[in-house]
Amino acid sequence: MAGKDSGHLKTVRLWRDAALRARKLRTNLRQLTLSAAGGCPGAGAEQLDCPEAPQLVLPANIGDIEVLNLGNNGLEEVPDGLGSALGSLRVLVLRRNRFARLPPAVAELGQHLTELDVSHNRLTALGAEVVSALRELRKLNLSHNQLPALPAQLGALAHLEELDVSFNRLAHLPDSLSCLFRLRTLDVDHNRLTAFPRQLLQLAALEELDVSGNRLRGLPEDISALRAVKILWLSGAELGTLPSGFCELASLESLMLDNNGLQALPAQFSRLQRLKMLNLSSNLFEEFPAALLPLAGLEELYLSRNQLTSVPSLISGLGRLLTLWLDNNRIRYLPDSIVELTGLEELVLQGNQIAVLPDNFGQLSRVGLWKIKDNPLIQPPYEVCMKGIPYIAAYQKELAHSQPAVQPRLKLLLMGHKAAGKTLLRHCLTEERVEGHQGGGDKEKSYPPSAPPVSKGIEVTSWTADASRGLRFIVYDLAGDESYEVIQPFFLSPGALYVLVVNLATYEPARFPTTVGSFLHRVGARVPHAVVCIVGTHADLCGERELEEKCLDIHRQIALQEKHDAEGLSRLARVVDEALARDFELRSASPHAAYYGVSDKNLRRRKAHFQYLLNHRLQILSPVLPVSCRDPRQLQRLRDKLLSVAEHREIFPNLHRVLPRSWQVLEELHFQPPQAQRLWLSWWDSARLGLQAGLTEDRLQSALSYLHESGKLLYFEDSPALKEHVFHNLTRLIDILNVFFQRDPSLLLHKLLLGTSGEGEGEGESAPAMATPTPGQELLRATQLHHYVEGFLLHGLLPAHVIRLLLKPHVQAPQDLQLLLELLEKMGLCYCLNKPKGKPLNGSTAWYKFPCYVQNEVPHAEAWINGTNLAGQSFVAEQLQIEYSFPFTFPPGLFARYSVQINSHVVHRSDGKLQIFAYRGKVPVVVSYRPAKGVLQPDTLSIASHASLPNIWTAWQAITPLVEELNVLLQEWPGLHYTVHILCSKCLKRGSPNPHAFPGHHGCLLVVYNGPKSSLDLPGMRLGRGGGELLSQPRPEGVAEIICPKNGSERVNVALVYPPTPTVISPCSKKNVGEKHRNQ
Ligand SMILES: Nc1nc2c(ncn2[C@@H]2O[C@H](COP(=O)(O)OP(=O)(O)O)[C@@H](O)[C@H]2O)c(=O)[nH]1
Ligand SMILES: [Mg+2]
Question: Residue of the nearest CA to atom 1 in ligand 1?
Answer without folding.
Answer: 538
